[in-house]
Each structure stands twice: as structure tokens, then as C-alpha cells.
Specification:
Elements: H1 2-37, H2 45-48, H3 54-73, H4 77-89, H5 94-133, H6 143-151, H7 159-184, H8 188-228, E1 233-237, H9 246-254, E2 257-259, E3 279-282, E4 309-314, E5 320-327, E6 335-337, H10 342-358, E7 366-369, H11 371-374, E8 380-383, E9 388-392, H12 398-404, H13 415-438, H14 446-467, H15 471-475, H16 477-485, H17 489-497, H18 503-510
Parallel strand pairs: 6-7, 7-9
Antiparallel strand pairs: 1-2, 1-3, 4-5, 5-6, 8-9
Helix pairs in contact: 1-5, 1-8, 3-4, 3-5, 4-5, 5-6, 5-7, 5-8, 7-8, 13-14, 13-17, 14-18, 16-17
């Protein structure tokens, strides 16, 4: 889905320009209307509804003929029909001059959006199909198949019909803007401003259609590729965060597999609602091939068994545990898991989101560990000797995690806070190692380098405690308890989670991290 997000940004810019051009075109018609019929920059509702005089009626007919001719040249049957309906229903009033111009501008707007939207959807479909292929044969859709995918309806309407529906909605509001403006005696500038606002609202609605239809196209193209690759089943990957709807949360909890032959958009395949971000992925039980973070099949170049790696660690209970891992599916980061069960997949999804937001390039290898193995009160841990970040599967269950960290024991209040805390440990040790490397004669051990690096931080903490004994407790009980034990590692990690608590302390921590 990340390719859709990137493409959306470009297309939304294009969409904004299209709607701006259309708004300016209808504003131009409005200014011309005022110039011809206004008195002291005002037109009353009664004046607007007056019938056209002979000269004006002739101009009105010429404009209508010009609109009809252009619609015929564009072979736009829908616009031609709408122009005919407007013209036949008109009573040749001044207001009909505006309404006919509006219908024509609506048609031009639809033509432009449909042309660009069609190209956008075909690009998404082709890209998604190719990526889902993962080197498993033919990677292009033939023209009829591509056309069928793009024309597939969502909620009973294909994208062209949905665009017309949005534009019709805009047209109703523009007509209402004309009417209210004339009744209020608004100036042309005031009405032009109201028109611009209506076009902005319509643009936002169009963006919703783009996101939703884009999601549908990606999933349908991916499903088509899975079928052609001989797969029979798929699962639904839900993007879990604070914006996830209850519909998609329920689907994630069910964690079902579905036959590809029975895929129906909106019923058992995304999108399930407007702005839906869920996508389909291969069924792990059927397919042992890994997938990347967009749900695309990755063709392995080595034996899967050779990718297994043994990890050993001491958990929160002081127990020595060991387990084999393999690369996680659905990620571009170096994340390893014991298996591809749902709790591991959910944790990988959470980590993807957090790492994407951080945009850091110094991430260590990450190993996802079953929460029972890691320990009840251990959510993550950074091992400096192996440079590995161990993460509990509890991070994939964010609501449960947030209940666990609620209160003042930790500065972290969510999964991202937990990761920030642990990566601060890594940054701390990396800074110490750099200091030792810069002056190996002065610091002939990592302990001496750490003591030197920590000294300014320790002095600052002591100064703050002298004036406020609760200084560390206010940051977190974990910071306070860690400081009492001797090392200031926990203070450094906790201030990274809440840098605004003491900006001076944070600047001391960041001077080399």
C-alpha cells in the first residue's frame, strides 16, 4: 500500500489543480454574469430570474450551441445528454445562463478527472500485479483484463459513476450558492469566495474516492496475480493504529483465510469502507514464500531452512532462553520472528509503522519474541554486545500494551515510546564507542569512555535533584529507580521518550548520540 500512498500524493496535487481550474472557470462565468446584469455590483433573486431579452436570448442560444458542439467533438454522450436536459428544462431566464455554463463546466471537470483517474488506476493495477508476481512468471496484465479491473464497481458504482456523483453533488451546492447569494444581495467577490470553498470540499471528497478506489485496484490486481500463480487462498492484512475502524479491527481479530475464487470487494476483501487501508496477502499456510511490506510475494533465492538463525538471551525472569528465527514477512526492515502467527504479524506491522515514522538509518536487527518468553513486564530490550533489539509480541497488541504502561512507572505510553526508549540505549552505547575510538589511549576501556561521556549528564541530574528531590520521579519511576542503582542509562532512555521534560538534559544526551 505504500506505493499507493506515494502515488496519491502526486495525484492529489494534480487533482487540486484540476479543481482550481474548474473553480476559476465558473467564477469567470459568474463575473461575466454580474458585469452584464448587476446594478451597483448586486443582483437580486428577482432580477436573476427575469426572462432574457431578445439580444440576450440570442447569446444564450449561441452559447448552448457552442457547448453542444464541443460535447459532440469530445464524443461525451453523458455531457451532451445533461446539456440537452438543462436546455430543454430552461425558461430562458438570466439564471439559466449561469446554470447552462455550470453544466458544461461540470462536464469538462468530469472529463479531466476521469482521464487522469483512469491513468492513475491503470498505473496502480499494473504496478501491483507486477510486484505481486515476485518473479513468478508473466508480470503484465493484458489490456482487457486491465480494463476490467479498473471498471470494477465499488459499492455498486465504478469510478466514473462515483466521480459524476461527486460532481453532481458539487453542482447542487453551487446552484444553492447562486440562489443564496442573490437573495442575500452578496457581491460577486463574496459569491466567488463561496464557490471556491464548495470546490475545495468537492476536491476532498474526490481524494476519498481516489484512496478507496486505489485500495480496491491494488487488491484486485494482487488477487489476479495470486490466481495466475496458482494460489487458492488469501488473508487480510489490517493496518492497525489509532485510525483503524472497528470494521477492520474485527476482521483482524478474526484472522480468517478466504478462497480467491470467492473474493468480493467490500464483503470479504478490502476496501470495506471509504479510506480503507487494509490489503490482501498470501495465506501463510498455503505459501511458504515471504512477502514484503506491501503484501507482494518475494521469490526466495536460497533455501528457507538456511535462513534460520538461533538466538539466545536472558529474559526478565533471569531464565536463559533460546529460539530459532526467520525473516519476517511484510517488511523492508531487518526483523526476524519465530513464526508467522498473527501475533508476530501484528507486531511486525506495528514496527513497520514506527520505523517509517522515525526514518532512522541506524536501526539494529530486530527480533520479535513471544511475550511469555520475554517476560510479563519486559516489553523490549536492547543487547549492546550483539547489537540486537528484542521486542515482545505485546507491541502488536497496542491496546493491551497501553494499559500495561499506563501510569508513571515508564515515560513510554505506547509502542512507539517503548521503541524510542530502547533505541536511546543503542544511541547511548554507540556514542560511548565512538568516544573510545576517537581517544583509545585516553579511554583504554569501554567503561572509562562511558564514565567520561556520562559525567556532564550526571552533574546536571545532581544539580536538578538538589533543588527538586522529585525531579527524576516526575520523569518516571523507572528513571528514578535506575539512577538509584548507579548507572544513568535509564534516565537517558526515559528523557529520549519525553524530551520536553528537560531540554537541557536532552541536549546533553544528544551531543554525541
Amino acid at each position: 500500500m505504500r506505493i499507493a500512498d506515494r502515488q496519491d500524493v502526486d495525484f492529489f496535487r494534480e487533482l487540486a489543480n484540476i479543481y482550481m481550474d474548474s473553480a476559476q472557470a465558473i467564477q469567470k462565468e459568474l463575473f461575466a454574469f454580474f458585469q452584464q446584469y448587476a446594478t451597483d455590483n448586486q443582483i437580486t433573486w428577482q432580477e436573476a430570474r427575469k426572462k432574457l431579452l431578445t439580444a440576450d436570448l440570442s447569446d444564450y442560444r449561441r452559447n448552448a450551441e457552442r457547448y453542444f458542439k464541443q460535447a459532440k467533438e469530445e464524443k461525451d454522450e453523458e455531457l451532451l445528454q445533461r446539456l440537452n436536459e438543462q436546455y430543454r428544462a430552461s425558461r430562458a431566464t438570466r439564471l439559466d445562463v449561469l446554470h447552462l455554463a455550470l453544466v458544461y463546466q461540470q462536464g469538462v471537470l468530469h472529463q479531466t478527472i476521469e482521464k487522469n483517474f483512469d491513468a492513475y488506476l491503470k498505473k496502480l493495477a499494473t504496478y501491483s500485479y507486477r510486484k505481486a508476481a515476485g518473479g513468478l512468471g508473466v508480470t503484465t496484465l493484458n489490456a482487457p483484463a486491465l480494463h476490467q479491473l479498473v471498471k470494477t464497481p465499488f459499492n455498486g458504482y465504478n469510478y466514473s459513476q462515483q466521480v459524476w456523483g461527486n460532481i453532481d453533488h458539487l453542482g447542487e451546492h453551487v446552484r444553492e450558492t447562486f440562489k443564496k447569494g442573490f437573495i442575500r444581495g452578496s457581491s460577486v467577490q463574496e459569491m466567488a469566495l463561496d464557490l471556491r470553498k464548495q470546490y475545495q470540499v468537492a476536491q476532498y471528497r474526490a481524494e476519498t474516492l481516489v484512496r478507496t478506489d486505489g485500495t480496491m485496484i491494488i487488491n484486485n490486481a494482487t488477487a489476479e496475480r495470486y490466481k495466475n500463480a496458482g494460489l487458492r487462498y488469501y488473508r487480510i492484512h489490517v493496518h492497525l493504529d489509532s485510525r483503524t475502524t472497528e470494521i477492520c479491527k474485527t476482521i483482524s481479530r478474526q484472522d480468517q483465510r478466504y478462497p480467491l475464487s470467492e473474493l468480493q470487494t467490500g464483503l470479504n476483501a478490502p476496501p470495506f469502507h471509504y479510506n480503507c487501508r487494509s490489503t490482501i496477502v498470501p495465506d501463510g499456510e498455503e505459501l511458504s514464500l515471504p512477502v514484503d511490506k506491501e503484501g507482494n510475494v518475494i521469490q526466495p533465492t536460497t533455501d528457507n531452512m538456511a535462513k534460520k538463525e538461533l538466538f539466545k538471551l536472558t529474559n526478565a525472569k533471569g531464565e536463559e532462553i533460546s529460539f530459532h528465527t526467520k525473516p519476517a514477512k511484510g517488511t523492508d526492515y531487518n526483523i526476524r520472528v519465530e513464526n508467522h502467527a498473527k501475533r508476530y504479524r501484528d507486531t511486525v506491522t506495528t514496527l513497520n509503522r514506527i520505523f517509517d515514522e522515525m526514518k532512522r538509518e541506524d536501526l539494529p536487527p530486530v527480533v520479535v519474541v513471544d511475550e511469555k518468553k520475554l517476560g510479563e513486564k519486559s516489553y523490549a530490550g536492547y543487547n549492546r554486545s550483539s547489537d540486537v533489539l528484542y521486542v515482545s509480541t505485546l507491541l502488536g497488541q497496542e491496546e493491551r500494551l497501553e494499559k500495561r504502561v499506563k501510569g508513571n512507572y515508564f515515560a513510554a505510553k505506547d509502542a512507539k515510546g517503548v521503541i524510542v526508549h530502547e533505541l536511546a540505549h543503542k544511541a547511548h552505547w554507540d556514542a560511548v564507542k565512538r568516544l573510545q575510538k576517537q581517544s583509545p589511549k585516553r579511554y583504554n576501556s569501554i567503561e572509562k569512555a562511558k564514565k567520561a561521556f556520562d559525567e556532564p549528564i550526571r552533574k546536571h541530574i545532581a544539580t536538578q535533584l538538589a533543588s527538586d528531590p522529585m525531579y527524576l520521579v516526575k520523569l518516571s519511576r523507572n528513571a528514578n529507580e535506575g539512577y538509584k542503582r548507579g548507572p544513568i542509562n535509564e534516565v537517558i532512555a526515559e528523557i529520549a521518550v519525553n524530551p520536553g521534560y528537560d531540554t537541557k538534559l536532552m541536549s546533553l544526551v544528544q551531543r554525541e548520540t
